[in-house]
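Input sequence (193 aa), recorded before submission:
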Amino acid sequence: MFRLIKNYWNVLRRPSLHLSLGFLVIGSFVAGVVFWGGFNTAMEATNTEKFCTGCHEMRDNVYPELQRTIHFSNRTGVRAKCSDCHVPHEWTSKIARKMQASKEVWGKVFGTIDTREKFEGHRLQLAGNEWRRMKANNSLECRNCHQFDSMDFTRQSKRAVDAHSTQLASDEKTCIDCHKGIAHTLPDMSGVK
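Predicted structure, token format:
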């Protein structure tokens, strides 16, 4: 076994006897492009609504809640999909979020949230995780679509104008501070500060 590993190592560290350096460079470039294309294709495939609702935990619990909101059906026909609110658009932030979300797969694999009752039991924790993440990034996903500079205060209620023109404008608060439950049912908040 050791001899086999040693032989492979010797092949890897020696210059190629049969292939030119140009071929190796071009071949490596093509392999890199193919890998990168495959990686990005897989990344975008995991940002689709079909992927997000592929497991019954999401399809049966939170997707029906989204379907009852203005983010799903509205007069303009613009629909927010799961990744619009849960995955940043910037590439490095997107990769970080995807790595973070891979931990959430454990809930599926180990049956932590595989029934409606279990999901409801963890809803506050799951929502809290999202709220903290969105608070930390200044509601970046909201701001990808809702730009403060484009808000028409004349079409907002007095309460909304007061909040948007003072708290939001001064960076005192961010979107998620006031808009929890905008797309999903709020968890039982009794006992939460």
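Checked by second reader. The chain has a mean pLDDT of 85.
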